[in-house]
Amino acid sequence: MESVEFERPGTVEEAVALLQGASGNAKILAGGTDLLVQLRAHMVEPDVIIDIKHIEETRTLTKNSDGSYTIGAAVAGAEAGDRDDITKDWPGVVEGWELIGSTQIQGRASLGGNLCNASPAGDSVPAMVAAGMTVNIAGPNGRRTIPVEEVTVAPGRTCLEKGEFVVSFNLPARPAGGGDAYLRLIPRTEMDIAVVGCGVALTLDTDGVVKTAKVSLGAVAATVLVVEDAAKAIIGTKLDADAMAALDAACQAACKPIDDKRGTIEYRTKIAGVLGRRAVTIAAERAGKK
Amino acid sequence: MSSEQKDYKWVGTRQIRPDGHDKVTGRAKFGSDFSLSGMIHGRVLRSPHAHAIIQSIDTSKAEALPGVKAVITSKDLKDQPSELKPAGEGMVNYRDMTRNVMAREKVLYDGHAVAAVAATTVEIAEAALELIDVKYEVLPHVVDVDAAMKDDAPILDDTMVPIGYETKGPTNIAKHVEFSLGDTGKGFEEADVVIERSYKTEAVHQGYIEPHAVVASVSEDGQAQIWCCTQGQFMVRTFVGQLLGMPTSSIRVTPSEIGGGFGGKTVVYLEPLATLLSSKVGKPVKMIMTREEVFRASGPTSGGSMDFKIGATKAGKITAVEATVRLLAGAFPGAPVAPACMCAVAPYDIANVHVQGFDVVVNRPKVAAYRAPGAPISAFGAESIVDELAKELGMDPLKIRKLNAAKKGTKAAYGPTFRDIGYEETVDRAMDHDHYKAPLGPNQGRGVASGFWFNIGGESSATVNINEDGTAVVISGNPDIGGSRASLAMMAAEELGIEYSDVRPIIGDTAAIGYNFLTGGSRVTFATGLAVVEAAKDAVRQLCERAAKIWEVDAEGVVWDNGHAKPASTNVGDFEPLSLAALAAQAPKTGGPICGHNAQNVQGAGPGFATHICDVEVDPETGGVTILRYTAVQDVGRAIHPSYVEGQIQGGAVQGIGWALNEEYIYNSKGTLDNPGFLDYRIPVASDLPMIEAVMVECPNDRHPYGVRGVGEVPIVPPMAAVANAIESATGVRMEALPMSPPRLLAALDSSNIKQAAE
Ligand SMILES: Cc1cc2nc3c(=O)[nH]c(=O)nc-3n(C[C@H](O)[C@H](O)[C@H](O)COP(=O)(O)OP(=O)(O)OC[C@H]3O[C@@H](n4cnc5c(N)ncnc54)[C@H](O)[C@@H]3O)c2cc1C
Predict the structure, then answer these.
(1) A253: Cβ contacts below 8 Å, ≥ 6 apart
(2) Which CATH number is correct for B20-27+457-602, 3.30.360.10, 2.60.40.1120, 1.10.260.40, 3.30.365.10?
(3) What are phi and psi of B12, to 5 degrees?
(4) What is the pLDDT of residues B14-65, one digit of tens each?
């Protein structure tokens, strides 16, 4: 390995300038739990590493006056798990984020890193998508905000332009009658990569009828999917057996998985339906379903 | 039970291990922690192909790279004759060994070493590997044991002469073995029920946390020093000497602390290469495997395919067993096929048994030992079919085991007649355990299984030096993998009658102590423990002589009691007892240093038996298995240090659970390994498991002064069948192949649902 520059900017502007000015390959460092592994495996060979953890905006998690949250891109899952507010409002979002790796990894792993690593199996992404989260991107031309699901364009590739990086995320206020959940299947209980992940956010009216729903699947296609047919299958229902069967079928139909060492097409597809049903059930309970 | 229960001061207590502080503070030096000044770094070029002829190797560009000090290939190692030579427990073929260490005519597996480079930095060495130009002619490959036995299989070595097996043409079958007792034909005639089944297990890696690492330094006069993580410094010395043509006296090997071995460090990979590189360069050379190299190129244990046939009377008495076990050996012969055959039904008293086995080469790394080599594989078959038999007969699975249990006097199918053994006690204790009676919920099931392992003795040397202040040093020669230092020190303290904390156990290098066979076969606390006890007795004898000298009486008139020399009787005289410390202080005047010593080839290892109970919950929609509760009952002879015995039992059970549920090598269609890392080679993580309850049955081994039996291996024998039997109990579906991973179990559940719906 040739020598690598290491930079530690204190502001967003400095970070953008460093990214833009880099002659070769620049890499953002958040928790480093993907980047360091990739460096050691020679999968990436950056000329400069830019540690964003000294930029305050990336390291703060704020509940705003309207009940929404602004989440710094480099906040670790364990930090969110320690907070009463967000774990109560959006347990599914915190679940997907905080179950990453094991205790040691959880003290480091960030939403920004999980999203920008652009793995189809990133655990935090389906729940973020289901919750309707957006990302705040800073770059040479200022800032822009886009939905989470638009960031990853292919395995290992994001839509970020040269000089851009993710500063923070916006998480809406928890709606009335709202609930969310994230479930994944791994052969072990931790330290594994999702064979399938499923995030669900929904709202119920006072009669227990599903008013709105968003269902998202990870690890079953090149990027995280939004499964509109699955949401349609349950909106307007009380989650009776037919609605759940339709949801299961819609999840399965949406899958475009690959056969690989982590799971067969057949297995991944079946499990997408199972997790879809189970995540909806948990989200509905959290939304107050009796 | 033979040896009487005595009150011991140290034996049977839970002392702090002498290596504990250094390990928890990070001070302990493992293989890769060792460094010397002027040291350079070696890396290995490995085959990207499963099977290919090496047409040429051009190292010139690599040699020209600045910083590169030496490049070696198989040309730099002299070839070895193909003959089996005794080495410790078994036989080795140095022709195969030199080819495994460095490929010669062919590469035989993905990851096979082809060349090695020493350079001033690791980075330069790695860059140099890319400059080595190897031309290969890629050949068809085979990684599956059954496929390798077919007539049209790609042949790994057409010069191989099978042992015990007639063949017309070239074959991958290296060896055939057979063990018989009685007449199985007659036995099956006596049976009311006969069941036949086939089973399959995957090759699994030992999964030690510490990768192989070595520093070798050869000086100008040809004297070599080697520091490495190994289960046997004497084994390294022998093998390096043979492969490099060096006299044993010119090689000194010092073992580091060892981060796990489980049998996988009973062989050499890097040591001869580092030594050769160092001798070429004249500087110390350090080599460390990456985890990927560990998976691609170091030994797993065999995978196997098996056919079992069992017959029994309506009352549950097993009348006959026949089995065929086919084990993959990896690239060179040497699968643990004989022990697999010998252990298969050893827990049972069966009059008619015929077991045969095949040792089969395939394009995978050569297998190495792994806890009770071979036994867990055949036990998966045997203990699954015994469970099926119990079900067929409507019998409790522990009752059928008790009914057929081997006891003192039972003649085992593999030859010997058992002395005192505790198998039946393990079944009784399991039956009485509240775990066995606890209620189960929906989708939950319970399975039991038993296991057997011989355990071994072997060559051990030990020295007990009495220090001038009355403390003692115990020098032995076995790397401590399982807490053996604590046990050796406790036995020495017991014999000497001094405080445990006053005994310092040290593991000597090959020049500091007589020959010791490696740490393996669950032998150290038993065999080296026996040598330590004898060495301590030798020191005590000398202490008594010194007291006799001081008292001017005959040595026979002095006895040793609780750390003091005393007159044997009032006839001898009226003397105040002399403490060990007092005698040590006077040693210069009474004859010089007091050093006890013992060296012997220890016989009389007591076999180990275990019975495990496993509760699982199966998720019927995902095929996921949760281990709810696990109890492992084992005859441990006598637990010198109960915590480390429990640790061995728990560790073995956990490794077996991993073997049962998720561990497998995933070879792609090219025969290269797709999962050479802990992310996709799934050993259990802590959160996967409940606390494993270890229940120790103590049936002392009458051939050890404290009753010790080996304990480290038998706990990995029962788990695979215990888990499979539990899954069957939870779901009604019998898993006949490992691993029972979620996708495989779900597929089995789904196809059984389809079958049921059709019926
Ligand atoms: C032992 C272990 C277990 C793991 N288990 C899981 C798991 O269970 N589930 C899972 O999903 N992942 C897992 N991972 C992967 C990893 O921990 C997660 O993806 C984690 O969220 C990455 O976050 P990070 O802050 O460490 O990212 P980093 O490693 O710092 O960055 C990851 C990538 O994203 C880029 N990046 C980081 N932040 C930004 C930003 N703000 N803007 C633009 N680009 C950015 C980096 O340049 C890099 O390419 C595991 C990793 C390890 C080592």
Answers:
(1) A229
(2) 3.30.365.10
(3) 90, 0
(4) 999 999 999 999 999 999 999 999 999 999 999 999 999 999 999 999 999 9
State residue A68's pLDDT score: 98
Q: Do A189 and B742 touch (CB under 8 A)?
A: no
Q: What is the DSSP pairing of strand B472-476 with strand B458-466? A: antiparallel
Cβ separation of B662 and A261 shorter than 8 Å?
no
**Comparison of pLDDT for B97 and B4, the residue scoring more:** B97
> Does the beta carbon of B685 lie under 8 angstroms from any beta carbon of chain A?
yes
Q: For residues B649 and B715, is the Cβ–Cβ distance under 8 A?
A: yes
CATH class of B34-139+212-288: alpha beta
Q: Do A14 and A120 belong together in one domain?
A: yes
For residue B11, is pLDDT > 70?
Answer: yes
> Is B713 one of the catalytic residues?
yes
Q: What percent of chain B has pLDDT over 70?
A: 99
DSSP code at position B252: E
Distance B389 CA to ligand 1 centre (A): 51
Active-site annotation holder among B617, B713, B728, B759: B713
Cβ pair B386, B317 in contact under 8 A = no
Q: Tell if the pTM clears 0.90, that is, is over it.
A: yes
Q: Is residue B739 reached through a cis peptide bond, with omega within 30 degrees of 0 on the bond before it?
A: yes
Locate all alpha helices (DSSP H) within B595-692, ordered by sequence: 642-661
* CB of A136 sitting under 6 A from ligand 1: no
* A113 in contact with ligand 1, CB cutoff 6 A: yes
Say if CB B508 and CB B477 are below 8 A apart. Answer: yes
The gap from C-alpha B103 to its chain's centroid, in whole angstroms, comes to 26
Q: Count CA within 13 A, CB hemisphere, residue B326.
A: 18
Helices (H), B245-310: 271-281, 291-297
Is residue A114 domain-resident?
yes
Amino acid present at B230: T
Residue extent(s) of CATH 3.30.365.10 domains in chain B = 20-27+457-602, 304-455+606-758
Any atom of ligand 1 within 6 Å of the Cβ of A191: yes
Instruction: Examine the pLDDT at B3 and tell me if it is beyond 50.
Output: no
Residue B5 has a pLDDT of 55
pLDDT for the residue numbered B667: 97
- Quote the tokens at residue B357: 């086995």
Are A205 and A159 found together in one domain? no
* Residues of each domain in chain B carrying CATH 3.90.1170.50: 34-139+212-288
Facing residues of B446 across strands?
B615
Nearest C-alpha in A relative to B689: A189
Task: Calculate how far, in angstroms, residue A32's C-alpha sits from the geometric centre of ligand 1.
Answer: 6
Report whether pLDDT(B1) > 50: no
Q: DSSP class of residue B412?
A: P
Asked if residue B478 has pLDDT above 70, the reply is: yes
A&B contacts, CB < 8 Å? 47
Q: Residue B654 CB: number of other CB atoms within 10 A? A: 22
| Res B90 pLDDT > 80 | no
What is the count of structural domains for chain A?
2
Q: Where are the beta strands (DSSP E) in B490-591?
A: 503-507, 558-561, 564-567, 578-579
Nearest ligand 1 atom to the CA of A36 is 29
- Cβ atoms of B64 and B134 within 8 Å: the answer is no
Q: How many helices (H) and strands (E) does chain B have?
A: 21, 30
Tens of pLDDT, residues A207-266: 999 999 999 999 999 999 999 999 999 999 999 999 999 999 999 999 999 888 888 899
CATH of the domain at A116: 3.30.465.10
CATH code at B304-455+606-758: 3.30.365.10
Regarding whether A151 and A15 lie in a shared domain, the answer is yes
- For residue B534, how many other CB atoms are within 10 A of its CB? 21
- A108: containing domain: 5-51+61-171
Which pLDDT score, from 0 to 100, does residue B2 have?
Answer: 37
